[in-house]
Specification:
Two copies of one chain form a homodimer.
Chain A: E1 5-9, H1 17-27, E2 31-37, E3 56-58, E4 69-73, H2 77-88, E5 95-102, H3 114-124, E6 129-134, H4 147-160, E7 166-172, E8 183-185, E9 191-201, E10 207-217, H5 225-230, E11 234-240, H6 249-253
Parallel strand pairs in A: 1-2, 1-5, 2-4, 5-6, 6-7, 8-11
Antiparallel strand pairs in A: 3-4, 7-11, 9-10
Helix pairs in contact in A: 1-4, 2-3
């Protein structure tokens, strides 16, 4: 049987340790091609580049541990997937994996996540896709405990196929090299960011802001990703790109628009 | 009774005719404050600015037809909403309206939409929110037929309150000034973009790409936004930011992770 073709991308950029680890894990499962941003794209959400040019070039980042073919791209994670599928790959990949992100994409973070936007872009194109994130923002994060879970999830996705119209949002607790306790299927916890803007003055006296904030959990459910992670489990949330709130349609039909 | 406070934003930038029209419509309903990007942000998805500074300043774009208070912001639509709520407004707005976008945000376009990301950001913060888009990409689009529908929808939202965890994605057919046939509650049509990259060479010989593509409808349902728009109706899709594919959780629980 032919090896599965695995497209690897991310939002932290092609040199990020999380991506380099994911490449090594995926090489144990199939043939890997990398198409990833040439610079960090965190917080890019599902941005695409429509008013600017895109550059892409073949690169070698790590001759021994890297993939046989790697491309950097000047665009966003969603751009990388579009460019890979349309221009750079010889055939449709069997799966697209994105990450491993340095930092959580659990709960409401999925909305702002470049890592997940790459997975969602592939999902829209009908390709099984998974975003991986480790709950450690450090560039020196320890990814050694992540491999076994990541490989299991990718192998099951290749074997079972993805539920229609979904991609997987996988978050992994920070274990500093130890194995997580197991893998749990979860729902996205309800939460928001309590923003704080840090007001400063530039050397020339112009006022500017830095966006900062605190994560605020609004959900005590034990079936959420945040809960699973807090107990040391890997969380897997099936994530959809049909954003329709189907349950709300009936309620809205009672609104009085047409008199 | 106090006038409702209406925050108006968009992704085409603070000078866009669609925004200027929306301000005029909303001034008939309540007190309007504008916080909008200082330059076009189309295709920004739900991007936020975390690795860069944000600037904001009070501006007067149109002394007569504008709002009493308008601010431009160097960030994305989601940044504008965060900054408005946290730093610029005296009190929580009763509703946030975004648009009117020059071009469709129906169907899968919602995923890439800066207009909708502003609405979703407000929804996450628990504020009723609506994104408006007109199916006309032209900067000179005729917004005169849009006012009656837009005002009706905002008034109903203020009266009825928004279904929990949802915002509204409103798309308006191009009617060149005429009234749409009515308003329909819909679901998001299944579709994708069939990408094409236009490969070119720069004057110095470097290869680059432009992202282009064609919208591909994969859905023949008569309850979709695309169908309503094709029949001349305004489409209203309740849109959620809990991306969990709840129906897929059971299926994923049959996957074999933990042996």
């Amino acid at each position: 049987m032919k090896n599965p073709l695995i497209l690897v991308t991310n939002d932290d950029g092609i040199t990020a340790p999380g991506l380099r680890s994911l490449i090594e894990f995926m090489k144990e499962i199939g043939d890997v091609v990398v198409v990833a941003p040439d610079s960090p794209q965190s917080g890019m959400g599902h941005a695409i580049t429509i008013d600017n040019t895109l550059y892409s070039k073949k690169v070698i980042i790590d001759k021994d541990k890297g993939a046989p073919a790697e491309y950097s791209c000047s665009g966003t994670p969603a751009d990388c997937v579009k460019l890979a599928l349309q221009e750079l790959l010889d055939r449709k990949p069997d799966i697209v994996v994105s990450g491993i992100n340095h930092g959580s994409n659990a709960s409401i973070n999925v909305i702002y996540s470049g890592t997940m936007s790459a997975a969602i872009e592939a999902g829209i194109e009908g390709i099984p896709a998974i975003g991986f994130s480790l709950l450690d923002y450090s560039w020196k994060a320890d990814f050694s405990g992540v491999g076994r879970s990541a490989k299991k999830i990718v192998q099951e996705a290749l074997t079972q196929g993805m539920p229609r119209g979904t991609v997987l949002n996988v978050n992994i607790p920070k274990t500093d090299g130890a194995e997580p306790k197991g893998i749990k299927i979860c729902r996205q916890a309800r939460a928001n960011w309590r923003e704080k803007f840090d007001r400063r003055k530039s050397p020339t006296g112009r006022e500017y802001f830095w966006l900062t904030g605190e994560f605020e959990l609004l959900d005590k459910g034990e079936d959420t990703d945040i809960h699973a992670l807090s107990e040391g489990f890997v969380s897997v949330v099936p994530t959809q790109f049909d954003l329709t709130a189907h349950h709300a349609i009936q309620q809205l039909n009672s609104w009085n628009f047409n008199e």
